Amino acid sequence: MSHDKLSEELRWCVTMSDPGPHVFLLVLQPEEFTQEEGYRIRKILDTLSDRSFDYSMVLTTHEDKRGHMDEDHPLNQMVRACRGRQHLSDRTQLIADVDKIVKENGGDYLTCDVFEDTSGMVQGKEEIHSSKSDWILKSSSKEELGKDVLEQGESAQLNKWENIREIGLVSLKQERQKPSSSHEKLSSLRILLLGKNDDKKSTVGNMILQKEAFRPAPFFNYKQQCESASGKVNGKSVTVVKTPDFFASPLTVRSLMQEMEKCKSLSAPGPHGVLLVLKPEKFTEENRNTFKLILSIFGKEAFKYSMVIITHEGDNIPVDKTAVDFVEQNADTKQLIKICGGRYKIFDASKIENAKQTTELVTEIIKMMDQNRTCYTLYMYMEAKHQSELEEKNRRIKDLEERIRNTSQGEFVEHREEQILGECIRVVLIGKTGNGKSASANTILGRDEFESKISSNSTTTVCKKAVGKVDGRTVSVVDTPGLFDTTLSNKDVQQEIVKCVSLSAPGPHVFIIVLKIGTITQEELNALDLIEKTFGPRAGMFCLVLFTRGDDLGTMLIQDYIGESKIAKLQKLIRDCGGRFHVFNNKDNNNRTQVNKLLKKINEMVSMNKGSFYTNEMFQEAEAAIKRKQEAILKEREAEIKADMEKLKVSHETDMEKMKSKLEEERLKVQRERQLRENMLREREEAIRKEHEDKEKAEKEEESWRTKKEEDEKLKKEIWDTEKERWKKR
Ligand SMILES: Nc1nc2c(ncn2[C@@H]2O[C@H](COP(=O)(O)OP(=O)(O)OP(=O)(O)O)[C@@H](O)[C@H]2O)c(=O)[nH]1
Ligand SMILES: [Mg+2]
């Protein structure tokens, strides 16, 4: 590991064990431990404190063979340096050993003043001493630590992050208690560069360090990671951390936060200045918001450590004037500068070697440090994180409180009337259109609350509730439309039922099924089925049948009317309703006896039900049962369809097979016939050819016979002529 890297790592470790470690565990492997490693460990521990070894213990992870080792073996030397403390890997004993060290040191731990730059230790002995002097002994008991944490309202169960925060709380207390000296802090100035343009950030970083420490990434190679470089400015150590281009990258807020945490660890324990590098002409509102987002991830405190760096190029333009003009004109930049406490600096990127610019910037950062009295620390980051979590929790609590308030207020409004009137009996009237539900509701209440009239259409179209007194008892009545008439869809019926059950919240004590004396149609009987199905099997205990048009009964008793009825479904319905029925003559609405008798029956039912009532859950249960039944029917139907399909398939396949074999037969027949025809044709051709050949042969023979005859004739003639000549010559 390079010196720079080692220094960086140490700084991070020191930050993580803030306010200071109680124990250093030197984890060593006996057989592989060399003299050189021993020197290195001593160097690191000496750098941290003169008394580091008082807090150290050797932990060997392998079997201890020290007994067989030479007295001067580097491991033995290290154990002696650690005041003879050595531990073999045994977890239970380890804690006891650590406790022993803490006790021996009187509960002290090692700490360092705001974790000054430890890079000095690798650069020269003088600096090692100055760094060493920063370390002081601090005392803290567990109780004190717990108190700090409790002051911040933390729970006892601290998770990993909360532990870091716990450390941070103590650290901040110390930071705040300590007067800050900018010159002390300048010995390790840490600067974080944020910005869209990698080129510009590199330029600014190089200008600060006065060397080519950063190289801008080629435009096609976007740099995803933070880079850090250190150097000396006016003899002081400066670390610059360049962040990646968070603006152009497709980073999510989460990965952006992770990357920012990495950047922060590179500038641990925290940057003294966060420089927002921007190019005047390219700065947009979107960029400003991204800057704000990044800074808000660091927390509100981060703005106190921020400064806007405006880069400008070209000697020919009076830089200051243009940039100042720009700042004046560009509202987005102006706003960003404002939230950064009005701090901004204009850098001429074309004058990279101009040390004056760097000195001025460093002076500005020192000024900022003097104002802040500390650097931006891990604590602040954790605090910001914690704060935003707290705000989110508070917001959620407020939301919940609001909802609870609204709900209880709503219920209060709904039940206020009932509460004023006292204990309430909740009634819902259901039944076919025109059966007299509204008229019965009016009779119960003793006033014309609901519209009731003869009509071919539904008079009542929506559920409505009214409250009144019956025989000194409060009764809330919900009138409903003809829910079980065939005109409404199942979904509409269900919605209306939920509504009417909710209207009589927390649930109706009784459903009054309203029927009228007279002919009961098939449609009405179907509706009765539907009522039973819809409300579920448990609804019967909350139901009562009310007959209207009692005036039509004349002298007949309702019991006789029911007894004489040949409609089995009606009998069943009354049975299912626990034998509860009643009759109203709504034309005689001043007759309170009929109402009081009804209420008596209802009261008996309520006491039998021990005051329980029908709830939406029961309805949902019934609904679910119906759904299950429907699904079962559907499944059955599906199975039937499947079986039918299967049958069809089989018969189709058989048909197909038959068809196929028939087709094959046909094909073979055709093939055979064709073959036959072809054979016949071939034979015929053969015969013709033969005939033709015979004819040709005969012709040829005739020709040859003719030729031979002619030749014979000719020969005969020649012989004759020759003979004739001879005869003449004789
Ligand atoms: N004679 C007589 N008529 C009644 C009785 N009850 C209701 N009626 C009449 O029947 C008709 C319908 O009554 P409603 O109360 O509107 O019936 P409903 O069930 O509310 O009807 P919808 O609101 O359409 O569902 C009205 O003309 C009432 O006057 C009764 O007991 N006797
Ligand atoms: Mg009505």
Automatic annotation (TrEMBL):
Coiled coil: 383-410
Keywords assigned by UniProt, alphabetized: Coiled coil, GTP-binding, Nucleotide-binding
Chain ranges of the AIG1-type G domain: 186-385, 422-623
Transmembrane segments: none
InterPro entries linked: G_AIG1 (IPR006703), GIMA/IAN/Toc (IPR045058), P-loop_NTPase (IPR027417)
Keyword Nucleotide-binding appears in the UniProt entry: yes
Domain of life assignment: Eukaryota
Region Disordered, annotated ranges: 680-715
UniProt similarity note: Belongs to the TRAFAC class TrmE-Era-EngA-EngB-Septin-like GTPase superfamily. AIG1/Toc34/Toc159-like paraseptin GTPase family. IAN subfamily.
PANTHER family: GTPASE IMAP FAMILY MEMBER 7, GTPASE, IMAP FAMILY MEMBER-RELATED
Protein's recorded name: AIG1-type G domain-containing protein
